[in-house]
Design goal:
Helix 13 links the parallel strand 12 and strand 13. This protein is α/β, with parallel strands linked by helices and about 725 residues long. It has a nine-stranded mixed beta sheet with strand order 5-4-1-6-7-8-11-10-9, with helices on both faces.
């Protein structure tokens, strides 16, 4: 069990400020993350690490802030004003924020901002390393700290690390624009569990990982250097009980009264957003103008309450957006206002919790239309506050919450005419239908609240660690390694079966570019020089290539997955009488897939044929491969052939031939004191199954296998074989 949980985010759940009269002040945050994790970080020895919100402190201030935060299980990461400018206002919000929200025209790519981003992530890493212990859980949050999981993994290889992204993750076509895309993905992949709000974000991330870094995934799991990483969707909730009880509280009722005509005289359409170009504020103002024009009967009857919370108002785009909003509000109010009615009530400031609760409670419609949003909790807060189940939610399809709240009126935020009709539908919706829709949404929001979100994420983090532990139990342990080396030492007759690609040598885009390097040649020379050893290279490669590569060594060879066998210096023999008449038909299909899949090519062998797609676009290649396998299996249903889908290759060969059958021929020729077989591919499973019960069988990689043990990498295989060569 872990000793403590360390939560890490850019901002702490309190804001530290300098006050001329009071000095350093501390104000709790009321955001969804602070609420959701409040019970977690305040327990036992748990800790929340983050920036306190101010910069350029002298040592006395740092000591004071550190001591005060420590009382509430928090620890600060102090930043300079330059850090804040370049890391937060700069790279985080001028590069990542617009790019991840699909506003590519606003994204800037400046090296000094990127270097500052690295520097601040390192500051967070160092702060964590000061307090982290081996069994701790570390949960990193959001786009400001994308590099941090990788930095922590390098410093703490066995740490338990979770990461959650609260903003959207863009499609590969957008993400690939980032100059530092690979470094960013490798940083995130330092985590054991990576969470997003929606399946779409998860899918985009997996696609980018596959295309940019080259790691495949299966059912949301990625093998990263033979460490299993889980990627999943966890839609964030709210503190439902807090908003539900607040809606009927006396304070909220008093606020409703205090707001007077703002809420009671006309039907109210509520719009609450932070100032940001991703929120679609301009679009909804234009749509509201069109609504009043198309449905003039609502003039004097409906008002839009527009709350815009100040944000990044020193950034040019935000200043310009503020000016546009001001202009649009003035235009609509100037066009439609009457002596006793204003169409838009505009507030450019923050509201208290009770003030927000009153607006949620009394408004008839919530207009939540972001152009792109990770989740958007405003719509959920509105739903929870509707204790009488009267009210209608208009929600953008581009908000993560739309995946859950299907009973809302879902709209395309770029379609202003659709927003117009949604407003009309909302204002004319019968109370019974309002109640029915709201009831279903409340059921979902109540069930999957923010506390449940935390619980599910942390449980999933435990699960992936358990899976990693189970996988590691199959690793060749020091104890098992020592026993094997001892048996090898005692053995007078040894036979060693070695696959080539992915076992002795790593993969490459060009299959012909991976001939034995000097290190491997040295290993093979020393291994085959021992007269007690019989070494068998067992590969899917053609016999001519293997014969050329291993001409200098005393090895036996099994080529083309067991079709060709060579013992010592004897010529190659076919394991069975085979024919290749079928190849013409198969080649025609494979050639068509080469034409349809740029970067793919066909490798023809004497009695098998392979379609390689390692050079093709990763996602497209996988798609074509699955399609090809299906077509080939249908075609050969009445033929004595087998389709094998290996590592970026689809191969067709005779069904009666496999590596295991070929290996048995060598095993039957003599009795051996120790039998060893090492391979990495699905075709090597036949070898493992054919081995004697007491044989040492080793799978390279951490996937499930018939082998008794696993080694993580080609380097690990070479290290083991080097140990063998030192035994005489």
């Amino acid at each position: 069990m872990s000793k403590k949980t360390i939560i890490v985010s850019n901002r702490l759940p309190v804001t530290v400020s300098r006050n001329a009269d009071k000095g350093i002040t501390f104000k709790p945050s009321s955001g969804g993350l602070a609420t959701g994790l409040s019970t977690t970080y305040k327990q036992g020895g748990n800790l929340w690490i983050g920036w306190p919100g101010t910069s350029d402190h002298d040592q006395a201030e740092k000591d004071h802030i550190t001591n005060e935060l420590k009382k509430d299980n928090m620890a600060p990461v102090f930043l300079t004003s330059e850090d804040v400018n370049k890391f937060y206002e700069g790279y985080s919000n001028k590069t990542l924020w617009p790019l991840f929200h699909y506003f590519t025209e606003y994204a800037t790519y400046e090296m000094d901002l990127w270097e500052s981003y690295i520097h601040v992530n390192e500051l967070f890493r160092d702060a964590i390393l000061e307090v982290a212990e081996p069994e701790d859980k570390i949960w990193v949050h959001d786009y400001q700290l994308l590099l941090l999981p990788g930095m922590l993994r390098e410093a703490l290889p066995n740490a338990t690390i979770g990461f959650f992204q609260h903003i959207p993750f863009p499609s590969y076509e957008i993400f690939r624009l980032l100059p530092w895309r690979q470094e960013t993905l490798e940083g995130v992949l330092g985590a054991d569990l990576i969470g997003f709000h929606t399946y779409d974000d998860m899918r985009h991330f997996l696609s980018s990982v596959n295309r940019i870094v080259g790691y495949d995934s299966s059912l949301g799991h990625i093998k990263v250097k033979n460490r299993l990483v889980s990627v999943d969707a966890f839609p964030m909730g709210i503190d439902y009980d807090k908003f539900e009880s607040a809606a009927d509280s006396e304070k909220t009722k008093q606020k409703v009264i205090a707001y007077g005509d703002l809420l009671s005289k006309n039907k109210s359409i509520l719009s609450i957003d932070r100032l940001d170009y991703s929120k679609g504020i301009k679009h909804r103002l234009i749509a509201f103008d069109k609504f009043l024009s198309k449905y003039p009967e609502y003039q004097g009857q409906v008002s839009l309450i527009l709350l815009v919370v100040p944000s990044r108002d020193k950034v040019d785009q935000y200043q310009h957006l503020k000016e546009e909003i001001d202009t649009l509000v003035g235009k609509v109010n100037g066009k439609y206002s009457r002596m006793n009615w204003s169409p838009i009530h505009y507030f450019y400031r923050s509201f208290s919790f009770e003030g927000l609760s009153a607006l949620y409670k009394a408004s008839s419609v919530a207009l939540v239309t972001p152009l792109r949003d990770g989740m958007n909790l405003v719509c959920k807060e509105f739903v929870a506050s509707k204790t009488d189940q009267q009210g209608v939610l208009i929600l953008s399809e581009m908000a993560g919450a739309a995946k859950e709240l299907s009973e809302a009126i879902l709209i395309n935020p770029n379609d202003e005419n659709q927003i117009v009709e949604a407003l009309y539908t909302s204002l004319t919706m019968p109370e019974e239908e309002q109640r029915s829709r709201m009831k279903e949404m409340q059921k979902k929001v109540r069930r999957y609240n923010v506390h449940r979100w935390v619980e599910i994420f942390m449980n999933q983090l435990d699960n992936i660690i358990e899976r990693q532990t189970a996988m590691n139990m199959r690793l060749l342990s020091e104890k098992s390694r020592a026993k094997m080396l001892q048996k090898y030492t005692d053995g007078q007759k040894r036979i060693i079966f070695l696959d080539y690609d992915g076992t002795l040598k790593g993969f490459a885009a060009d299959p012909q570019s991976v001939s034995p390097d000097q290190e491997l040649r040295d290993i093979m020379f020393n291994l085959t020089a021992d007269p007690k050893n019989r070494v068998v290279i067992i590969s899917g490669r053609d016999k001519e290539t293997l014969e050329t590569w291993f001409a200098d060594f005393k090895v036996d060879i099994i080529a083309e997955h067991g079709i060709w066998l060579r013992s010592g210096d004897e010529p190659f023999q076919m394991i069975d009488n085979l024919n290749s008449d079928w190849k013409g038909k198969i080649n025609g299909i494979l050639d068509r897939y080469v034409d349809r899949t740029p970067g793919s090519f066909v490798e023809e062998k004497a009695y098998s044929v392979a379609w390689h797609y390692r050079k093709a676009d990763a996602d497209f290649g996988d798609l074509r491969a699955r399609e090809l396998v299906g077509n080939l299996n249908y075609l050969i249903s009445n033929m004595n052939l087998q389709v094998m889908h290996g590592n970026k290759v689809v191969e067709v060969k005779n069904q009666d031939v496999n590596k295991g059958k070929a290996a048995l021929k060598f095993l039957s020729e003599d009795k051996y004191d120790i039998v060893l077989a090492i391979g990495d591919d699905v075709t090597d499973e036949d070898t493992f199954r054919a081995m004697p019960k007491k044989a040492y069988t080793i799978k390279v990689g951490m996937s499930a296998s018939e082998a008794r043990y696993n080694l993580k990498t080609v380097a690990d295989v070479r290290e083991l074989l080097t140990e063998f060569t030192k035994i005489k």
